[in-house]
């Protein structure tokens, strides 16, 4: 039978899928180019045809991950007939669901692996590309709010960057959840996370010239749900 030659974009997507599975299994730092060639079933020449280097493949993975999230979230931020605060809050609330993969096992497992120390290089690239992709969206929403008189800031893009920085820093608490040895430690991690989220919410409100509590933040029950998703061996009822 003649050999089936797949379109370049299909073959490239397959290489990305297999590389991601390998990174999540072994850790980004523990995967060599030869490992990627073996798992993807490509020659070195064919691999370089798709990706000039291992780092280029990682960037492509990050771009794909961020792009998929963007496709889901952009319509939420762009809802017609909403004022800027309503658009911002809808987008922030939807981001929580998207970043947790809507609770389905595969994205949760991927995120759990990405937060491990050996995958920090890959995770940082994903976060950076995510932020670059969403910067114009947040800037536009905040600029609209200034124009409407809902927000009061002289730097809409800077405020958007601060909001994204607040969101990214929550990953540190997820890592601490992994390391919590007992119920007392888990309870303290949750308490610390909820307190910090409240602070971030107030900070966002104040830099936008809003009353405290105007912007959406995760509540304790949502943080507990996040912990249950990321640590499924610990049933929800065992959380403090």
Automatic annotation (TrEMBL):
Q: Which Pfam families match?
A: TetR_N (PF00440)
Q: Which GO terms describe its molecular function?
A: DNA-binding transcription factor activity; transcription cis-regulatory region binding
HTH tetR-type domain residues? 9-69
UniProtKB keywords: DNA-binding, Transcription, Transcription regulation
The record's annotation in Gene3D superfamilies points to: Tetracycline Repressor, domain 2 (1.10.357.10)
Source domain of life is Bacteria
Q: Which residues bind DNA?
A: 32-51
Report the PANTHER family cross-referenced here. HTH-TYPE TRANSCRIPTIONAL REGULATOR BETI, HTH-TYPE TRANSCRIPTIONAL REGULATOR RUTR
The protein's name = Transcriptional regulator, TetR family
- Taxonomic placement: Bacteria, Bacillati, Actinomycetota, Actinomycetes, Mycobacteriales
